[in-house]
Amino acid sequence: MKKPRIYPLKTFLGALLLIAGAGTLSGQTDSNYSEAGASLSVAAPMDADRAADFFASLQPADTLDAVFRARVVDVCQAKGCWMRLELPEGREVMVRFKDYGFFVPMDIAGREVVVGGKAFISEVSEAERRHLAEDAGLPEAEVMAITGPAREPGFVAEGVRIFN
Questions:
Q1: Pairing with 121, which of 10, 16, 18, 80 sits 20 to 30 Å away (CA)?
Q2: Cβ atoms of 75 and 108 closer than 8 Å
Q3: What radius of gyration do the chain's Cα atoms show?
Q4: DSSP state, 124?
């Protein structure tokens, strides 16, 4: 009886292709969105109306977990290190990214996103408000028209899902 021949190189290459293919499949995401930061695994995020009510209920000392969906109003044009999201009635929420650990594309204004992370209310100084206006690319006249501090809803995102 003839002993079957084993081809170690072919066996190794076959196993390598199988492993590489499995890794590719597990890393794929829905083509309707891309993600930045941590992957979000929420089935039903709050819509912008519920998020506005949620932020309205926060006290200055509160920091609460939240996941919500909203439209991007503007993005830092220097690096994509922050974005503002639209809430109803002309309100907005400033979103920064956890530990400055990731950024979003600078061309996503107008698109829908889902953000997951920590919600809070913060007092933003006049200097910070002007700096953010400059980063957003506003004309100098608009930047200089900003006066005084403002109390604003804030959010530190651990992950962002950006819809196409």
A1: 80
A2: yes
A3: 22
A4: E
The answer to whether the predicted template modeling score (pTM) of the entire model surpasses 0.70 is yes
Residue 9 has pLDDT above 70, yes or no: no
Q: Which amino acid is at 129?
A: R
Residue range 43-71, pLDDT digits in tens: 789 999 999 999 999 988 899 999 999 99
pLDDT at residue 111, as a whole number: 98
What's the rounded Cα separation, in Å, for the pair 64 and 153? 12
Burial label for 7, CB within 10 Å (0-12, 13-18, 19+), is: exposed
The CA distance from 23 to 73, in Å, is 36
Q: What are the structural domains of the chain?
A: 32-163 (2.40.50)
